[in-house]
């Protein structure tokens, strides 16, 4: 029962429920906890998952996309910069910082791209962004090289065809919907963003990916005795959060 309790907790919260509503839902199955306890559980398992995932190199494609969206930290507007793999939609890296039109914006984007190289263990062959000068400067710093293979920067996106950025806009929409229910994050290094990144990559199945997770397409498999708790095993119509987060079975790159 303990693993189902934790599974349902993560499932409810990262599907869009508030901490208080998550606690109320748990009471319906006899689990008497406060919203503060729910938050502590989430913090604990996100931290454990991050330690395991640091050892994993996702097998992402050669084309990456980057964009930013506004969110609030303690009520103040900030930007969430995200780096997404085009083929698997794996959320490679993120950076919470100031506006992309600020003087420091090139450094924000550079930090994002450096994280991406560290996580993926490589550079992309194509980087797709909007026309922001900050992205171009960061591309020159982190991805451009005179020797082959040379990373191409596609920075004049359109709304149609292969040069569109619909994948990134769809991704921003899902993050924005989750952030809206929280009204405002307490701090820029909130574990909630880390948790949603884990949820997006390793838990939530995507219809556009054939009902698979980005991690599955990126060659990351889960092994262990609790794999039976994957999709559909938890009695809820909402996206599940399986035993990958509860018992932390061994991960490996396929």
Order of H and E elements: HHHEEEHEHEHHHEHE
Gyration radius from CA atoms, angstroms? 19 Å
Number of discrete domains: 2
Gross morphology: globular
What's the CATH class of the largest domain, please? Alpha Beta
The residue fraction in helices comes out at: 40-55%
What characterizes the major β-sheet? Answer: 5 strands, mixed
CATH architecture of the largest domain: 2-Layer Sandwich
Quick one: how many beta strands?
Answer: 7
Question: Unreliable segments (pLDDT under 50, ≥5 consecutive)?
Answer: 224-254
Would you mind describing this structure in some detail?
The protein is of the alpha/beta class. It folds into 2 domains: 104 residues, no CATH class; 125 residues, Ribonuclease H-like superfamily/Ribonuclease H (Nucleotidyltransferase, domain 5, 2-Layer Sandwich), CATH 3.30.420.10. Strands 3-2-1-4-5 form a 5-stranded mixed sheet. The longest helix is centred in the first third of the chain and has 19 residues. The C terminus is likely disordered.
Write the layout of secondary structure elements.
Elements lengths: L1 H13 L4 H9 L7 H19 L9 E11 L2 E10 L5 E7 L7 H16 L5 E3 L4 H10 L9 E3 L11 H17 L8 H13 L10 H4 L2 E3 L20 H4 L4 E3 L1
Parallel strand pairs: 1-4, 4-5
Antiparallel strand pairs: 1-2, 2-3, 6-7
């Amino acid at each position: 029962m303990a693993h189902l309790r934790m599974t349902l907790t993560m499932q409810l919260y990262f599907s869009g429920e508030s901490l208080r509503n998550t606690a109320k839902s748990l009471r319906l199955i006899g689990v008497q906890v406060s919203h503060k306890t729910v938050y502590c559980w989430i913090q604990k398992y996100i931290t454990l998952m991050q330690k395991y995932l640091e050892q994993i190199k996702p097998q992402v494609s050669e084309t990456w996309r980057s964009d930013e969206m506004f969110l609030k930290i303690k009520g103040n507007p900030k930007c969430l910069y995200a780096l997404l793999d085009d083929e698997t939609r794996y959320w490679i890296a993120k950076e919470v910082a100031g506006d992309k039109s600020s003087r420091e914006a090139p450094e924000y984007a550079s930090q994002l791209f450096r994280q991406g190289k560290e996580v993926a263990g490589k550079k992309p062959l194509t980087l797709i962004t909007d026309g922001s000068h900050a992205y171009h400067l960061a591309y020159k710093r982190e991805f451009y090289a005179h020797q082959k293979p040379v990373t191409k920067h596609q920075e004049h996106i359109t709304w149609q065809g292969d040069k569109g950025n619909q994948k990134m806009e769809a991704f921003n929409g899902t993050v924005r919907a989750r952030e809206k229910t929280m009204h405002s994050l307490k701090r820029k290094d909130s574990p909630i963003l880390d948790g949603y990144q884990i949820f997006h990559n390793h838990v939530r199945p995507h219809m556009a990916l054939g009902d698979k997770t980005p991690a599955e397409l990126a060659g990351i498999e889960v092994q262990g005795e609790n794999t039976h708790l994957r999709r559909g095993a938890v009695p809820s119509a909402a996206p599940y959060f399986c035993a990958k987060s509860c018992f932390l079975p061994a991960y490996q790159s396929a």
